[in-house]
Amino acid sequence: MTAQLSHRLLATASAAVLAVAVAAAPVPGHAQTADAVLTTYADIAHAIYSDSLATALVLRSAVQDLVDNPSPVTLAAARTAWRAARAPYQQSEAYRFGNVIVDDWEGRVNAWPLDEGLIDYVDAGAYGYESDENVLYTANVIANPTLTFGGRTVDASTITPELLADELQEADNIEANVATGYHAIEFLLWGQDLNGTGPGAGDRPYTDFDTADCTGGNCDRRAQYLLVATDLLISDLEEMVANWAEDGAARAALTDGGETAGISTIVMGLGSLSYGELAGERMQLGLLLHDPEEEHDCFADNTHFSHFYDQAGMQAVYSGRYVGIDGREVAGPSLSDLVAAADPALDGRIHDLLDETSRRMAYMVAVAEGGYAYDQMIGQGADAGNATVQAAIDALIAQAGAFEEVVAALELDVGGFEGSDSLDNPGAVFE
């Protein structure tokens, strides 16, 4: 890496860090009551999911344009809209762990990794011909009007919301059978990334949606699948927006167990996302295996942004301040206020750790946007890239450790954060 390129990447990273720091700066002078903190937490959830819905509606319009007028321009616009839709949604993931309503729902919209051969054609040389564990590994519902599994035949002649959500999502109780959500849409827009740990993302041609000049076969069904999957994403997000409204089920569940239980939920979400989910399953595992299939947004090469916005969401939750896609601010009493009242030094250290993780994430974004994608960074022998990813992992682990200290400082009952073999028992990853 040349010095000139390094300076340019660091400048980009600095700008990204500044944006997150401004959005997550602590708000002084708020009352330090648990009830008020829970209200802010729920208000931020409602704002984040509302932004996720708004950007999904823009994606739906772009997808319709692609289907109606397939071209390089409309395909690029749909891909841009998908990327934009990921930014607010990823910030919601701090709400997953501890909020049962969110965690039970999350698999509909963000399940990964997926066996994409369930959905559409794949390059068998890169993907594989069969799976002993999954009979739907190469079912290709877009090409096949009937599917047989679980001792029954399923009519797939018309691609409907019920077919995708009720019949195919986690069919045969296999989590890799992902038929709905952001990643199913991502695969349809980009196709397989056949580049391994080399440069380049998926490169599906726009003509895969062009019924007049069809490539890939079944362009009408592929277009219908894309529209239905996007409609399902919108309806799922509408449900979660309602769950965090003033009279919503998720907001009510947060306070039903009492204030201490509600604060424990906040800390559980921050600690589990920091440690087991993001540092472990989404980052350390792929780095240990040097496997591009273990990156989160693997078709679009958007993983660096997904990780970055996970961290931005954690900062927003801890600091009690979120800035929406239209610049509006939702802010109020925060977990930071409670920690500062109990242990000011710990609160200051957590802000420092959050900022440090954000800096390392932003540098990773800058490297990726500079032309060295996340799947290249985790490749075998990519020492500089490996180090960039490992630095972000180490920062996440450190902030998770500080959240463990919050449990003691506030006398909470969390029961332990989510773990990951990649962190806790790395040898098991290779067994």
Describe, in plain words, how this protein is organized in 3D.
With 431 residues, the protein is mainly α. The protein has 16 helices and four strands. It has a two-stranded antiparallel sheet. The chain has a two-stranded antiparallel ribbon with strand order 3-4. The two termini are 36 Å apart.
What portion of residues belong to β-strands? under 5%
Mean pLDDT: 92
Query: Helix content range of the residues, please?
Result: 55-70%
Oligomer: single chain
Rg, nearest Å: 22 Å
- Uncertain residue ranges: 1-18, 20-31
Order of helices and strands: HHHHHEEHHHHHHEEHHHHH
Shape: globular
The CA-CA distance between the termini, in Å, is 36 Å
Q: Tell me the number of helical segments per DSSP (H or I, 4 or more residues long).
A: 16
Main β-sheet, in a few words? Answer: 2 strands, antiparallel
Largest sheet: spatial strand order: 1-2
Number of strands: 4
Structural class: mainly alpha
